[in-house]
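User: Predict the structure for this protein chain, please.
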Amino acid sequence: MRDHPHEGAAAPDTHTGTDGGSPAAPMAGSHAEPPEVWHGSATNRVQWLLAAVGAACLALGIELAVDSNWTSGLAPLVMSVVGCVAAGLLVLFGTLAFVHVAVRVDKDCLEVRCGHIGVPRRRIPLDTVVDADVAPQVTPRHWGGWGYRWRPEQGTAVVVRRGEGLVLRLGDGRTFTITVDDAEGAVRAIRRRLPGRDGTPAGA
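Assistant: Here is the predicted structure, written as structure tokens:
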């Protein structure tokens, strides 16, 4: 006696679905989620030279304070020590804090950490982001220098090097720009988490 026609149908674990048949299991890409967390960064090694200048100023101030043979009075010595130490600390912080930037995008927010100790830091909830796009060329000249910048007509930016960057358009009308490698990947990661966006940067 012959088997029923449907008894020989492919079992759920057979290799079907690649040539037009029904897949045994839902395709992973049909409702694929973006990576749980996207990481990006940018570095400007040239700023280490400025950091060396700051360290030299700091060392000079310490040397003057510890081993000074000045005979022209205490006040000039104190002013020199304070000036060298203050200048050294300012240059060191201003360069080391912005020699590197790290960007993290998860399902809830974008987080920016500056420097190797992560300060200053900014956290932007994605529900306050309207859109994201790639800026092909960000330069310190556009923002008035390196570091954490603000300009009334442009918004806020973290600039550690020349080159591509990520631009966030926020719900309050402001923008936030970050120089980061693979800015296009960051745009995709953010847009996939925004309602009604397909994750494709403009012009891609």
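Residues 61 and 81 are 4 Å apart (CA to CA).
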